[in-house]
Amino acid sequence: MAEEEEEELAGAPRVVGVLSALLERVVERNDAAADELAAGAASASAATSPAPASAFRATARPDISVRSYMARIARFAGCSPACYVVAYVYLDRLLRRGRRGRGALAVDSYSVHRLLITAVLAAVKFMDDVRYNNAYFARVGGISLPEMNYLEVDFLFAVGFDLNVSPETFGHYCTVLQAEMLSLELGKTPPPTTMTTPAAAGPRLHSCCLSEDDGATSSSASGSSQQQLAA
């Protein structure tokens, strides 16, 4: 299965594989943390707290892996490599705003696919002059058009319609993804790129958030990162 997924990503920009690996790691941690919370509640004979209601949470775990799903999007969406970086920025903003009052939404097996297709759709509309419509993205994502439309609207409100990404922020995220890429190529454990929800009881659920205020990179460094991720 791993070899097949790597073949699927062979023709995609490197940023697709890097973002897939990062999100897979986040999903694995969130799933494990949720299972631990559920087990703890069961052992204490207490009712498990339900996950926050969200349009992005599926009722069952999709059969397709994150890596294969990203490869499918890369194959059919035809968007620029920069869109995947911007989509990552949007996911960050959505999750950080959720911790500030909209209700925490973990990136797990139930939500990651819908979050991905919607974030990429939003990024494509903001970044690319030539793009496919919502009906096409719905088919790519394996959902209905009404659901795609609803997810898009919910996503826009969730990020507060904050879609602009400054060159400094874009460069910062490119640098983070480049570090992830280099770690994967060297076979090392990638550096931590997760934060935790502050109010979680017991084991905390991880999100894929970074901070846009962690610092800006130099233009030369960010340009080098962009070139490597787009290759």
UniProtKB/TrEMBL annotation:
<keyword id="KW-0131">Cell cycle</keyword>
<protein>
    <recommendedName>
        <fullName>Cyclin</fullName>
    </recommendedName>
</protein>
<feature type="compositionally biased region" description="Low complexity">
    <location>
        <begin position="218"/>
        <end position="231"/>
    </location>
</feature>
<comment type="similarity">
    <text>Belongs to the cyclin family. Cyclin U/P subfamily.</text>
</comment>
<dbReference type="Pfam" id="PF08613">
    <property type="entry name" value="Cyclin"/>
</dbReference>
<dbReference type="GO" id="GO:0019901">
    <property type="term" value="F:protein kinase binding"/>
</dbReference>
<keyword id="KW-0132">Cell division</keyword>
<dbReference type="GO" id="GO:0051301">
    <property type="term" value="P:cell division"/>
</dbReference>
<feature type="region of interest" description="Disordered">
    <location>
        <begin position="212"/>
        <end position="231"/>
    </location>
</feature>
<dbReference type="InterPro" id="IPR013922">
    <property type="entry name" value="Cyclin_PHO80-like"/>
</dbReference>
<dbReference type="InterPro" id="IPR036915">
    <property type="entry name" value="Cyclin-like_sf"/>
</dbReference>
